Amino acid sequence: MQFEDYRERLSARLFSNFDLYRDITLDDLQIDMMASFKKTTERYVLLKKNVQYRFNTFEYFYLIQQESLSLDQLKNFMERLTDHIVQSTEPDQDHMSSDHTVIFHVKENRPEVAEYVQKYIFRKMFKLGFNGWVHIGLVLVDTTGKIVFSKHRKQKPYRFLDVQTQ
Question: H/E element holding 24?
Fold first, then answer.
């Protein structure tokens, strides 16, 4: 599946709940598509002014197209993106979690890149988790639209990213 087709199918799945941005730049990193979602949960007593607690949950998807991806390119990209994400996350008492999923659409898979993707996971807690945490996952998708490799493939949270031709 060509990149444009994959991007359109993924956009159609994310459109109803996410804000979609195309062709953006984050700290000199070119992102072909970004999707963001914010959910706020509040509990209050009698009146909405009497808020007992509030949680903000954020979810982001980054879609990047690469013809071929070397291990050094991937490590460099993920290091720079991780630094940007950690710096731009504003942990406060309402922040619960920020989940980031980086999707690379590639034409050529290399074994060392696949091994790195299978092992990659990033977690950072703010004030022992009292101010929330950041989770970054990495997914590699090939031209057929199938997920080739991801860390959490067995737990299936990324299953909806399998956008195959029907």
Answer: strand 19-26
Residue 106 is assigned to a structural domain of this protein: yes
φ/ψ (deg, to 5) at 34: -130, 140
How many independent structural domains does the chain possess? 1
Tens-digit pLDDT profile for residues 78-97: 899 888 888 877 776 666 77
CA atoms lying within 13 Å on the CB side of residue 1: 20
pLDDT digits (tens, 9 = 90+) for 31-78: 899 998 888 777 778 777 777 767 788 888 899 988 888 889 989 988
- Quote the pTM value: 0.81
**68-73 — which CB contacts under 8 Å span 24+ positions?**
68/106, 68/107, 68/108, 68/110, 69/104, 69/106, 69/108, 69/110, 69/113, 70/110, 70/113, 71/110, 71/112, 71/113, 71/116
46 domain-assigned: no
Residue 63's domain comprises 3-39+55-89+100-161
Give me the CATH number covering residue 122.
3.40.1350
